Amino acid sequence: MYTAFANGDIATLNKVCCPGLANDLASRISRRPRDEKITWALEQYIRTPATYFTGVRIVSDRASKFPNMEGCGARQIVVCITSRQSKGKITAPSSSGSKNSAAVAGNSSTTQQDCTEYIVLQQLRFSDKDEPWRIWGHATPTSVGDLDSPYFAHGPSITERLQGLPAMGRR
What we know:
Blueprint: H1 2-7, H2 10-16, H3 19-30, E1 36-45, E2 56-65, E3 73-91, H4 101-105, E4 108-126, E5 129-130, E6 134-138, H5 158-168
Antiparallel strand pairs: 1-3, 2-3, 3-4, 4-5, 4-6
Region (Disordered): 88-108
Subcellular location: Mitochondrion
Protein name: Tim44-like domain-containing protein
């Protein structure tokens, strides 16, 4: 996915990503300056005892049947990937031939960083036939501190709480 994004390969993004993510990445590609080239590389997986053989750990695996549709459903897996990645931008010289063209031609910046990503993979099933796995997007892990958030509170839903806010000021 990242290689296709860096190369501006929208056809590959449409093949390996679900439509929402593919459309988001395609719109980001279209907003890039024409003289800018993006590079990306997976340098290595950062292995822990849990990920020694594959470099990937399955965090969640859920499946659901679509109601009133026999043999249809969805399965989503969240994988945790810890890796060292490098990304960069290279600005090509403009064709106008200005004095700054030569200076800009060598303008490149590459950074390397360790990343922990939670990637959601999705497989759909229609009429008992499995579609290929596709990347649905990224997930954010929930910490113990997040459990104090109103999103996890017992009782009324967030929508009901927001609708009740105006009434709280009246006595």
